Amino acid sequence: MIPARFPPNAISGSARRAGPGRSRAVVALKAAAAFGVLLIALPLLSLAWIAIGGDLSPVRHVFSIVLPAATADTAILLAGVGLVTTLLGVGAAWLVTAFRFPGRGFLAVALTLPLAVPTYIIAYCWVEILEPFGPVQTAYRALFGFKSRADYAFPDVRSMPGAILLLGFVLYPYVYLPVRALFAVQSASLIEAARTLGASPAKIFLRIALPMARPAVALGLSLALLEALNDIGAADHLGVRTLTVTVYTTWLNRGSLPGAAALSLVLLAFVTMLILVEIRSRGARGFASSAKKPRAQDPTPLRGLRGMAATCACALPPLLGFGLPAAFLAVEALKRGARVDPGLSSQILATVVFAGTATLLTLLLGAMIATAVRILPGRPAAAAARIASLGYALPGTVVAVALLGPLAGLDNLLAEALSALFGGRWGLILTSAGAGVVIAYMVRFVGIAVGGVEGGFGGVSRHVDDAARTLGHSPGLLIRDIHWPLLRPALASAALLVFVDAMKELPATLLLRPLNVETLATAVYAHAGRGVFEDGALASLLIVLVGLVPVVLLTRASGEAAAAATRRREADSASETAALQS
Amino acid sequence: MGLKIASGAAFAVCACVLAGAASAREVNVYTSREAELIKPVLDAYAQASGTKVNLVFVKDGLEERVRAEGAHSPADVMILVDVARLVRAADMGITQPVDSAALKATVPEALRDPNGRWFATTLRSRVVYASKERVKQDAITYEELADPKWKGRVCIRSAQHPYNQSLIAAAIVRLGPAQAERWLAGVKANLAKKPSGGDRDVARDIRAGVCDIGIANTYYMGLMLNGTDAAQKTWGEAVKVLDSRFAGGGTHVNVSGAAVAKNAPNRAEAVKLIEFLVGEQAQNLLADLNYEYPVRAGIAANATTKLFGAISPDPTPPAAIAAQRDAASILADKVGFDR
User: Fold this and answer.
1) What does the pLDDT read at residue A23?
2) Pairing relationship of beta strands B139-141 and B243-245 according to DSSP bridges
3) CB-CB: which of B11, B199, B334 is closest to A61?
4) Residue B86: which of B114, B105, B51, B45 has the closest Cα?
């Protein structure tokens, strides 16, 4: 179907463009792209089908009373989280690139650590730390001599402001990372010119750095807000009734699947808006790097109090978003010492099996889709890749609601086919093997794999493809012998990200997992649900520690990129000097 | 491509293991009760009967999952808390009638479906916790919770939680919809903080001084006082359970119960398990470990009655409460209780 409507690009006469042919590899790539689209389309269609076909009259009041309130709360939460993540992310990125102060190198890395902490764990931790008998209020009472909680005012973390701050302090790295990367290569000449013209650092930041960073801010912000929208554990625990929470309660407490599906569609409107922002900002990224000879600015040294202030400002976000919660978990885990949850080893096993299987399959699919975009001419493959990547924007709850029906239907067909073939009664094989969980992970995270591999392809010149094809390599051989070996680093980092995200995933795992199976995330949730979250401290700590691995590795990789930029800068100035001398 | 072969092989192995496992004697339990609370009883059953008990804990969405799984669902027994959920499961058509003389003889008529589509296994009362220090009275009516004298002194979890929905539904039955709405709005006006957390948080907040009274199920008191968590023990110790009744009636009582799934692959085992749950051994265990009231008559002194005394349930039949559940949910939304 592809060649008919989108003929091969006629401008290029290279062998690659001369038509991909009908080789098995090309068929496989097309199939992968189609499957990727189907994977996303199936749950969305099922959702629309349930919403349109179902009886919404029993939940009419949900739409007139609950929906407006939930929409308003969601908007407030997103606006608040947007503000906090932007302030923290951009502020910290500017401090570590524009200034030199004590601990700067360490803090630049530490600032990324909250990425390892899932939103539900940060909420559980801070509720325990700030509760009336937690360390903070106990110390507060001792300090001021209060006897009872009734004697003093203390903000309740279980509130909208609490939710905004907590989500902000774990999600700001989404903004910090791209903005720092951009600041690192931002044309220094503009900033230096402004400085010579007498502009204050504040003015340089507001008038030059910030406007230039806008595309990176928008990109990071859209990702952070999608995470905030997807969160259910934290909002639920903090008593904030967002749309995502309302989808959940409408399905399960109000007992209306059609109502939940219809609300999911409203939620998807928010998602679509954020994706549009993200796509626009990705398109606009060229604007920042289009400056000639980008080179990093020289950091201004900050001394004395100002240096201390910068250190504190950069230390605070990772301390609140990672350090203190992690320390709390470690203390609670140690306190329990020998009283380890007897199910822990099986929870680890289940987590590794589910997340590992999902990572393998997701990566295979993602790599094939990204390869299809590379090899197949025209827009269908690219469009398929974009559609397949939408899953990361679908909240886990919505994915689970939407998958349950089609999956169980397929499972029943399979069971009937098996009993027709072999006789006897067959159970739900896909469900009991945890296929639902794995498929939900694939839907949610295939975008990470596609994006990662596409990024990897960016480093492989198309001339390589042309040369290979000219030398008679079939598309299959080109992919096997040349592309995939070159893509190994990109595949590895994508695998790591998918694995960690799958390991942290809560809502879909909770709803779709088979009999006798608990993962680390569901065990943490069960402990928190029983009011004894601290008993799940070790499981939480494991999630956070495993989550640290990709964060540290990727930060190191981006640090290397920054170092490369510095080397480029030095090379540039060397060649400038040489040019001047000649 | 190697991956595909590997995953295909893994799938085949899984399928064989499952097919093999299906031949042994076993029963599959879907529970909306935290697995840890029900496990000692299920372990006792496994030991007594030699049947393997498989368990999945799905707090919310259990019924939806069983319905979606359809004809080939592995679910044999569903253990649900809250009468409204049991009734709804029966109405959804995911349970099946059970005609068991043992169950009929043990479970009082009001505590089971007339067609045997569900059976209550324990009773739990939803009562008012109060600060030992700051609250003098030892008895209260649910109606009094709306009295302005409690302004800024009441704590409770989300009104959309099934426990509260059933309490609100009971209020609708007793007071009528208009009066119930005024009552619920009055309770809302008395809240010390936005509804959040669980029943144990109510005791903690009372101990801390955030509020003076709160609404929670009795058995949490037993779990806090006798659990391993030293902090929770102090919460329980700061709180007393008030004799809580509807004016002119009794205490709001909810049930936890069990039903045989419509497409249960191990139907006989499923019935046997439910019979075990209302048997003497299990009823004693549930009362001693979970602090719930037995449904079986003649279970003598146990940890639960020692803590809270005998139960005096409100005469409103559980099925009538279940019938008002949707109205209760709408009412909670209407007065903006959780906001």
Assistant:
1) 76
2) parallel
3) B334
4) B114
How much is the ipTM here? 0.78
Question: What backbone phi and psi angles, to 5 degrees, belong to B183?
Answer: -60, -50
Are A361 and B338 an interchain contact pair (Cβ–Cβ within 8 Å)? no
Q: What is the dihedral of CA A500, A504, A508, A509, to 10 degrees?
A: 100
Residue among A132, A431, A534 whose CB faces B69 most closely: A431
- Could you give the 3-state DSSP secondary structure of residue A30? helix
Q: List, for residues A22-57, the tens digit of each pLDDT value.
A: 678 888 888 888 998 988 888 888 888 888 888 888
Structure tokens at A43: 């749950």
Over residues A333-361, the pLDDT tens digits come to 888 876 777 788 899 999 999 999 999 99
- Two tokens at B59? 């707090």
Superfamily of domain B126-251+314-334: Periplasmic binding protein-like II (3.40.190.10)
Q: What's the CATH fold of domain B26-123+253-307? A: D-Maltodextrin-Binding Protein; domain 2 (3.40.190)
A258, burial (CB in 10 Å: exposed 0-12, middle 13-18, buried 19+): buried
Helix (H, G, I), strand (E, B) or coil at B27: strand
Do residues A558 and B64 lie in contact, with contact meaning Cβ atoms separated by under 8 Å?
no
Q: Do B61 and A431 touch (CB under 8 A)?
A: no
User: A42 in contact with B at a CB cutoff of 8 Å?
Assistant: no
Stretch B23-43: mean pLDDT: 85
Instruction: Please name the helix (run of DSSP H) or strand (run of DSSP E) that holds residue A106, with its range, or none.
Output: helix A104-110
User: B129 forms bridges with which residues in the sheet?
Assistant: B214, B241
- Alpha-carbon distance of A320 to A558, in angstroms, equals 23
Nearest C-alpha neighbor of A511 from the set A417, A386, A398: A398
Name the residue type at position B219: Y
pTM of the model: 0.82
Answer yes or no: same fold for B26-123+253-307 and B126-251+314-334.
yes
Exposure string over B89-126, b if 16+ CB within 10 A, otherwise e: bbeeebbbebebeebeebbeeebbbeebbbbbbbbbbb
Interface test with A, best of B57, B94, B129 (most A CBs within 10 A): B57
Q: Which residues of B touch A513 (CB under 8 A)?
A: 56
| Residue owning tokens 């590794």 | A352
Q: How far apart are the first and last CA of chain B?
A: 53
Residue B122: what are its φ and ψ, rounded to 5°? -145, 165
Q: How many CA atoms lie within 13 A of A168 on its CB side?
A: 23
